[in-house]
Amino acid sequence: MKSIYIVMIVVLVAMLATACDRNAAVDKNGAVTNAKVKITVWHNFEGDDLRAITVRRLINQYIAEHPNVEVDAHAIPVDEYRLRLKEAAAANALPDLFFVYAGSQSQQLYDDGMLQPITELADRYPEWKNNFIEDAFSRFEFEEGQIYSAPIGMSATSFLYYNQELFERYGAKVPATWTELLSAIHVFNDNGITPIALGNKAAWVAQSTILGSLADRVTGTEWFMRAVAQDGASFTDPVFIDALYKFKQLADNKAFQDGANSMDNTQAEQYFIQGKAAMMISGAWSLTNLAASATPEMLTSIDVTTMPGIEGGEGGANTLSGGAGGGFALNKATAGAAKQAALDLFYTVSGPEGQTAIAESNSMVMYKVDLEEYKVSPLYFRAFALAIGSEITPVYDAYLSAEASESINSGLQELMRGGKPEDVAKKLQDAQARSLQK
């Protein structure tokens, strides 16, 4: 009988030890211990560009270093990602950790109660937090004292990439003014070369890469911020309609290749790399794509500058639209050991080593890194110097409401099909006004 009691005690002790082990999922620093836990992760780094490869490698590094954590990671194509995330949010089925864009997308998720802050990581690693450059967190601070993400990129969205060899061959001048841009467009059209490659299948592209900088040159930044706040400015004001007419002027003058609204961004990059287009207006993300897919010979003919200034406009020239890029966010429903595992993975990708690795993939970051020149392309170095020396102006969808962002995105596609700027402006104005009334 005594032996039975001993066996029962041993079993109870073992069960208690197991229970304690499972409950002790995190140590005093908040790090995951040896408890078994599963987390889901969504991101849009599924391509063959260097940044995508780097982010996936960082995630795999975390998996290898944490055998107790089962990570169900999904890499979703860029052009599908926004819709997939929106559908998951509507169904209250977001993953534990997921990539979000700074601006209206992350703001909407916060407003809908889908996010929880990652402030505890910033408190745990103050040197990491303090090493970000100015305004890195501004679009992720939805309430005072709380941070909801940390950018893993600088979103400089409106570089003008151009093929020097084509400009020299046809005697075109690299445009510094709107008049010079229109002149170059005519030169290349006359010689059977597409002037500007554009992949606007995912309708955010034209808005993010072209309209933000173009419109800022016409209206100035102050007007845009007042229109966003509906404070003494309206998107039906003549100055903004003039900006839309200038975008339409590009389309009417056949600046873009046929079918631009059916081509995705990656296809447009390849179109440009292959010398079928003389220019491409795109973001910093194209630097890593070009480094991964273009041959050294192709890269030697590509250079980068800012979009041309607009004579008589309210905004300055030599500016870039941009700000904090996207970052990973934490599902509000994620708790316990799963939350700590998700935060640890967040830090693996977004922490100092991750930021350096992403910078070395020819991607701009909002983090101070000691970058070795030989590890990046010359084009990246030139673009980085350009970004550092340029004033940064707003990207429209980083400040507009989600509804208004969708309105201007589809509106630009409408203009490319022959629509009227006044109609697009009214729809945008109505959408932004409705959003502020909710």
Considering the chains and any ligands shown, give keywords for the structure.
alpha/beta, five-stranded mixed sheet, 2 domains, D-Maltodextrin-Binding Protein, domain 2, 438 residues, globular
Give the strand order of the largest sheet, numbering strands 1, 2, ... along the chain: 2-1-3-10-4
Largest sheet: 5 strands, mixed
Count of DSSP H/I helices: 19
CATH class of the largest domain: Alpha Beta
Supply the CATH superfamily name of the largest domain: Periplasmic binding protein-like II
E-strand count: 11
CATH topology of the largest domain: D-Maltodextrin-Binding Protein, domain 2
Secondary structure topology:
Elements lengths: L1 H22 L13 E7 L6 H16 L3 E7 L2 H13 L6 E4 L3 H8 L3 E2 L2 H6 L1 H5 L28 E5 H6 L8 H13 L3 E4 L6 H16 L1 H9 L8 H15 L12 H9 L3 E6 L2 H9 L2 H5 L1 E5 L12 E3 L5 E5 L4 H15 L1 H8 L18 H11 L2 E3 L8 H15 L4 H17 L1
Parallel strand pairs: 1-2, 1-3, 6-7, 9-11
Antiparallel strand pairs: 3-10, 4-10, 5-7, 5-8
Helix pairs in contact: 2-15, 2-16, 9-11, 9-18, 11-19, 12-13, 15-16, 18-19
Question: What does this molecule look like?
Answer:
The protein is α/β, with parallel strands linked by helices. 50% of the residues lie in helices and 12% in strands. The chain has helices at residues 2-23, 50-65, 78-90, 104-111, 119-124, 126-130, 164-169, 178-190, 204-219, 221-229, 238-252, 265-273, 285-293, 296-300, 336-350, 352-359, 378-388, 402-416, 421-437; strands at 37-43, 69-75, 97-100, 115-116, 159-163, 194-197, 277-282, 302-306, 319-321, 327-331, 391-393. The strands form 3 sheets. The protein has a 5-stranded mixed β-sheet. The relative contact order is 0.17. Mean pLDDT is 90; it is low at 1-24.
